[in-house]
Design a protein that fits this description.
Layout lengths: L3 H8 L6 E3 L5 E3 L1 H7 L6 E7 L9 H14 L4 E5 L4 H5 L7 E2 L2 E4 L1 H5 L5 H21 L6 E6 L3 E3 L9 E3 L9 E3 L1 E3 L4 H8 L3 H10 L1 E5 L4 E3 L6 H8 L6 E5 L4 E4 L14 H10 L2 E5 L7 H13 L5 E6 L1 H7 L12 H19 L5 E6 L6 H13 L4 E4 L1 H4 L5 H12 L16 H13 L3 E4 L1 H12 L6 E5 L19 E10 L4 E6 L18 E2 L5 E2 L3
Parallel strand pairs: 3-16, 3-17, 4-15, 4-16, 8-11, 17-18, 18-19, 20-22, 21-23
Antiparallel strand pairs: 1-2, 2-14, 5-6, 6-14, 7-12, 9-10, 12-13, 14-15, 22-23, 24-25
């Protein structure tokens, strides 16, 4: 592992612009932006994937391996990734720093606490929560209706028992009311941190956040509560991007971590902008399948930040194709040509969707040891029929060298005549139901949208408050194009059930909650935490 000062120097960053967190991690100081902001931007490449399955697609490791391979191929490349959340790391997913020879390091530190950014978001969010209840307790000058407080509390852990709680129980402890917890990565503050341009924009966005309604039904924001400066103070270090490296010394900016199925699922705008000034190519990712992550990357992050992606890489695997073709997880290692062919409909849908944003597409077939040559050839032939370039990635086993085929294909795509004509899917001046309908029909291929009574009340409120200009952030299962996790492949004709719509005014979007999606995940029957051990030297085992 190189010293982070060496990685920075090789990237063109002087040590004066680093705020060191030990030998192998650093934050990038605002002074660096002052030095590099006049440089031309590199090319932005999104890595996304087919719908995730229990077999794992390897989107993050492909992002890391591709960045390593591009540097090996002579293209100065920087990766931009999200920060792992403790809840999923200790719950179902385990570590979120790649694997094999395509990892970012120091992996254990990045997965557990890192530089404290997520904890800062937790503290800022819960400060506001405490100040809301204290304001009511101390006389309620703003006339807040205790039953219409929409700001909950957060923690960075999967804990289903905290989804719904009652606060204020006991004498002298304030107003008794129903509330609950979100996971920190679902906090609007995380979304605001990842979408803001600078500290001043962060402060302004924090002030716009909706906390509830007064007794007259008028919205009350965080700015009304005089909490914003203290919240900004808690976030003043967290707004600075973090610099780490891959196993091969490729620079990686890791910053921010909004959930992809609940929030917008992309690393920070600030971190991406730093990366674009430091590299000829920036490889970034968006969470879960392209129907969630890529759609939000294109429709929310790129729109708000004025970013123009040059290409999209769609990660697929043989096993995931068979799973989407109806094969259970226990039988994925066995050959099944019929299921593989059936599962190809899933990637065909994603390719078609990505092209709707005007962005050239490259398919990355993430290679696993058990893949047969016949299965691989079936996928390659299908991509040729779809007129989409495809390359095999062996980054897990071979690192950058194993990603050279993919890097070569990406270089060709970026230099070819099929240039990006990026445009969002919908225009801001559409009303909220029309935006939702456009996503459901054009990206998910559903037939209709059904709004619950609660969702209809939310739509009426949005209309009354003149907030139809907001973008929409779909909170949906990642496992299916639909809102039904078990409806695999490329389903059509379904109706998406919208349970409710919440307002994230600081982030600039309305969160559309569909199906059975929850904003506080639970732990599985065997949490990943059970497999983590630490030896006498303090080395972690079982996190990745």
């Amino acid at each position: 592992m190189k010293l982070i000062t060496e990685v920075a120097a090789e990237t063109g960053i002087h040590e004066d612009h680093l705020e060191l967190y030990g030998k192998y991690k650093a934050k990038l100081a605002p002074s660096l932006w002052d030095e590099i902001k006049g440089r031309p931007d590199g090319k932005l490449v999104l890595v996304t994937a087919m719908n995730p399955t229990p077999a794992g697609e390897g989107k993050t490791l492909t992002t890391i391996g591709l960045a390593q391979a591009m540097n090996k191929a002579g293209v100065k490349t920087v990766a931009a990734l999200r920060e792992p959340s403790l809840g999923p790391c200790l719950g179902m997913k385990g570590g979120a720093t790649g694997s094999g020879k395509a990892q970012i390091i120091p992996a254990d530190e990045i997965n557990l606490h890192f530089t404290g950014d997520i904890h800062a978001v937790t503290s800022a969010h819960n400060l506001l929560s405490a100040m809301i209840d204290n304001h009511i307790f101390q006389g309620n000058e703003l006339g807040l209706d205790p039953q219409k407080i929409v700001w909950k509390r957060v923690m960075d852990m999967n804990d289903r028992s905290l989804r719904s709680i009652v606060t204020g129980l006991g004498d002298g402890n304030g107003t008794v009311r129903e509330s609950g917890f979100l996971i920190t990565t679902a906090s609007e503050i995380m979304a605001v941190l990842c979408l803001c341009d600078n500290l001043a924009d962060l402060r302004e966005r924090l002030g716009r956040m909706l906390i509830g309604y007064d007794r007259e039904g008028q919205p009350v924001t965080a700015g009304s509560l005089k909490a914003v400066d203290a919240m900004t103070a808690l976030l003043k270090e967290a707004i600075k991007p973090n610099l780490v490296q891959t196993l091969e010394g490729t620079p990686v900016i890791v910053h921010g971590g909004p959930f992809a199925n609940i929030a917008h699922g992309c690393s920070s705008v600030i971190g991406t902008r730093y990366a674009l000034k430091l590299g000829e190519v920036v490889v970034t990712e968006a969470g879960f399948g392209a129907d969630l992550g890529a759609e939000k990357f294109m429709d929310i992050k790129c729109r708000q930040a004025g970013l123009k992606p040059s290409a999209a890489v769609l990660v697929v695997t043989v096993k995931s194709l068979k799973y989407n073709g109806g094969v259970p997880k226990s039988e994925l290692y066995a050959g099944n040509r019929a299921a593989l062919i059936a599962g190809l409909a899933n990637i065909q849908r994603h390719i078609k969707n990505l092209r709707k944003f005007g962005v050239p597409v490259l398919v990355a077939l993430n290679h696993f040891e058990g893949d047969s040559q016949a299965e691989i050839q079936e996928v390659l032939a299908a991509c040729r029929r779809l007129n989409v370039p495809v390359a095999i990635s062996k980054a897990w086993a071979e690192g950058g060298a194993g990603g050279l085929e993919l890097a070569t294909a990406l270089k060709k795509l970026l230099s070819g005549s099929d240039t990006s004509a990026y445009a969002p899917l919908y225009k801001d001046d559409l009303d909220i139901p029309s935006k939702i309908g456009k996503i459901v029909k054009e990206i998910y291929h559903g037939a209709d949208v059904a709004f619950s009574p609660a969702a209809k009340r939310s739509l009426a409120l949005i209309e009354r408050l003149g907030l139809s200009h907001l973008q929409v952030c779909m909170a949906k299962t990642p496992y299916s194009f639909s809102d039904q996790p078990r409806l695999l492949g490329a389903p059509e004709g379904f109706t998406v059930q919208v349970r409710d719509i919440t307002l994230s005014l600081g982030a600039g979007f309305a969160v559309v909650i569909t199906g059975s999606i929850v904003t506080m995940p639970g732990l599985p029957a065997k949490p990943a935490a059970e497999g983590i051990q630490i030896d006498r030297e303090g080395t972690l085992i079982g996190l990745l």
